[in-house]
Amino acid sequence: MHSVSIEDFIKTIYLINQDEQVRVSGKLLAERLQVSSAAVTDMARKLDEKGLIIYQKYKALELTESGRLMALKLVRRHRLWELFLHQVLEMDLQQVHKEAEQLEHQTSDALITAMDRFLEHPQFDPHGDPIPGADGQLPQREQVVKLSKLPVGHYRIARLTYSHSDLAAFYQRHQLALDMTIQLIQRFELDASVEIKANKHTIVVNKNMADHIYCEDIDNGIVSEKSD
């Protein structure tokens, strides 16, 4: 177990809400941050007093508007650093995430503004994640859908999320990358896994992994979700 900063606490709540669209319980947050449930409760009470989150015993943690803006600022720093390290310094995607985790806490607003200008105001990082603007607005990509929700067909990978180290290892092992064209061959209703063809190889992807791979249609960017 280790201590966690206010910034990481706030950012993690935001990312769980944004990427996984689930309610953030104290238990889930403790697991993600690798701290005790008691440590999460203690921090939550402090941040509730500061007006950054809404904390109520036995209820999901929620960010206030102030907390959301703090999280967006951190996410903006992190994703701009990832893009800079990958695009300019040619570091691999696993490296840039680890380095950006450190740099996001030590970067001035002036440096982030200069980096954004140097990179020509990008909207997405190397993983396809949206980079919040200086005003906190998130760029939107039309009709990007989780692989787990798609019907059989051909798609382009538009976003890969890295919320767990196992995901990075999975992408690397199967050489899955942004803008790659894949074929969804078959869906298995028993366990909601999917069979895809990528890099001339056939891969079975379980639902948990497929929930972190976002795709768009290769012809016009419009896809329809499969009903559960």
Structure description:
The chain has 8 helices and 8 strands, in the order H-H-H-E-E-H-H-H-E-E-H-E-E-E-H-E. Among the domains are: 6-63, Arc Repressor Mutant, subunit A (Orthogonal Bundle), CATH 1.10.10.10; 145-217, SH3 type barrels, CATH 2.30.30.90. The chain starts with 5 loop residues before the first helix and ends in an 11-residue tail after the last strand. With 228 residues, the chain is α+β, with helices and mostly antiparallel strands. The chain has a 6-stranded antiparallel sheet with strand order 3-8-4-5-6-7. Strands 1-2 form a two-stranded antiparallel ribbon. Strand 1 and strand 2 (62-63) form a beta hairpin. It is 41% helix and 17% strand.
> What is the CATH top level name of one domain?
Mainly Beta
Radius of gyration: 18 Å
Mean pLDDT: 89
| Global morphology | globular
Q: Provide the low-confidence segments as ranges.
A: none
